[in-house]
Structures are given as C-alpha cells and as structure tokens.
C-alpha cells in the first residue's frame, strides 16, 4: 500500500517508510514483530528492531549493511530483541565494516549487551570489523546522530527503563512512532506537525495497561496536529475488526512515501 500523491513528494528529498514488521509480540495475524525501515536518498535506518526483524529485511532485499542506525522506542523483546541477531549478522554473515549506531532509552547499552550474552555467549566482546556506538537519549532534547535528529518523549509502559515515543527528522521530514503506551499528552507533543504519525492501536476498545486502544485513540484524535496517521502493533482482536477502522492501518510490506 502506497500512501502519497505524486505532487506531495519531492523525489530529490523523498523519505520512504517501509513496515518490515507491523505485528505485536505474539505474531498476531502472522505478522513480524515491530521493525520500521526509513530510507532517504543518502541513508537507511530502522525504528525498532523486534526479534524477527532480519527475516522480513532479507525477504525485502535490504542489505543490513545499508542500515546506519537503529532507533529503539523501548526495551521489550518485540521492539529491540532483533539487535543481537543484527550485530552478529554483521560480524559473521554480511561482513559489515560501516559503523552502526544504536539509539534509544537510558539503559539501552546494558540491556543489549545482556541480551547478546544470553543469546550468544561471548558475542558482546567478540572482535568486529565495525564500530558499534550506543546513544542513550535524554528526554525532550533533540539529538543528532549521523544527520538524523531524534527527540524522545517519555510515555507509559513498563519495560524496565523509561519508554519513549520517538520523533525522528530526516531530510526535512518528520516521522513519529508512539511505541507502546497508554494515552498520554506526550503523544500530542511528539506528533505536533509530523508528516507521519505511526500510532499503536493494540485493541479495538479493550483498555490494557501500557497500551493504546483504537477507541481511546478516536476519542483523542482531535488533539493531534499531524498530517498523516497509520495505526500499527495490532492484536488478533483489533485485526478482526479492521473493517470498522477509519484510519490507515499498517501491514507487513506496506510502504509510505512522505
């Protein structure tokens, strides 16, 4: 699915958003876990990298070596659990030499290193031919990483570290991803003026701690001042009710140009 009118996109500055994984932690609807690829004329980066992320990436013909940066909303396995596999793939399979930046909440480095050691003992200290940099984002301070401007807004989810909605600017376009969160005014702040707001809608109308449902989203939608909205991270219950949904919903392989 392609959501853009031709005259909306300056092809010299285009940004393409590809939903490699649009699913939840449990493979609802047969979908891969959260992984959003963003491609600009000069770069490719990921927003979140769930445990299954290498599979759709390679199916899509994307060379992991072309990914410069992985931005992480929060430290749950379906959002960051693919990073140990990604790093090991760069070391052993694709023979990566370009630096890789991993960006996200405070505590990110320690959690990734711990995950690497649990999954592949010794992998965290193994020699690599590429530099690995961890950038832990302070709240509400714009941070520039290799031309990408990331701003983190604390949201509501229990993940062992402060979870974030991420506002990411590249090539003059602004993409915001809510991550997993209950409704919070921080989403209004993060999404203000965004070209694309990717928002969780885990259930249709069931309220669950740490997650946003479609009914609550609808009741708050008028507070948002973004240009486009795509809903993602949907449970089986939400997927079953998609005919009742009046906003664009993500699917694995969906592309959006902004």
Outline the structure in words:
There is one protein chain. With 258 residues, the chain is α/β, with parallel strands linked by helices. It has a single domain, classed as Metallo-beta-lactamase, Chain A (4-Layer Sandwich). The chain contains seven helices and 14 strands. The model is unreliable at 1-11 (pLDDT under 50).
Give a short overview.
The protein has 258 residues and is of the alpha/beta class. It is built from 7 helices and 14 strands. The two termini are 13 Å apart.
Distance between the termini: 13 Å
- Structural class designation: alpha/beta
CATH class: Alpha Beta
Number of helices: 7
Q: So, CATH architecture?
A: 4-Layer Sandwich
Rounded radius of gyration (Å): 17 Å
What is the helix content? Answer: 10-25%
Largest sheet: 7 strands, mixed
Number of beta strands? 14
The named CATH superfamily:
Ribonuclease Z/Hydroxyacylglutathione hydrolase-like
H and E order: EEEHEHHEHEEEEEHEHEHEE
Shape: globular
Mean pLDDT: 95
- pLDDT < 50 stretches: 1-11
User: What's the CATH topology name?
Assistant: Metallo-beta-lactamase, Chain A
């Amino acid at each position: 699915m392609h959501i853009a009118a031709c005259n909306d996109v300056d092809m010299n500055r285009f940004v393409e958003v590809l939903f490699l994984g649009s699913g939840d932690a449990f493979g609802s609807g047969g979908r891969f876990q959260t992984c959003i690829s963003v491609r600009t004329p000069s770069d490719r980066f990921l927003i979140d990298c769930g445990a299954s992320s290498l599979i759709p990436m390679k199916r899509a013909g994307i060379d992991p070596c072309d990914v410069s940066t992985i931005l992480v909303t929060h430290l749950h396995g379906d959002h960051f659990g693919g990073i140990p596999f990604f790093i090991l793939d760069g070391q052993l399979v694709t023979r990566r030499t370009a630096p890789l930046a991993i960006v996200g909440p405070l505590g990110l480095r320690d959690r990734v290193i711990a995950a690497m050691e649990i999954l592949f003992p010794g992998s965290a200290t193994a020699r690599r031919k590429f530099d690995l940099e961890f950038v832990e984002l302070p709240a509400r301070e714009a941070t520039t990483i290799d031309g990408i401007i990331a701003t983190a807004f604390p949201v509501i989810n229990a993940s062992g570290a402060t979870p974030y909605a991420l506002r990411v600017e590249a090539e003059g376009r602004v993409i915001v991803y809510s991550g997993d969160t209950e409704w919070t005014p921080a989403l209004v702040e993060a999404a203000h003026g965004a070209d694309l707001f990717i928002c969780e809608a885990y259930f249709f109308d069931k309220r669950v701690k740490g997650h946003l449902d479609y009914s609550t989203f609808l009741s708050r939608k008028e507070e948002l001042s973004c240009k486009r909205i795509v809903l993602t991270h949907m449970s089986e219950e939400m997927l079953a009710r998609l005919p009742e949904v009046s906003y664009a919903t993500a699917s694995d392989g969906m592309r959006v140009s902004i």
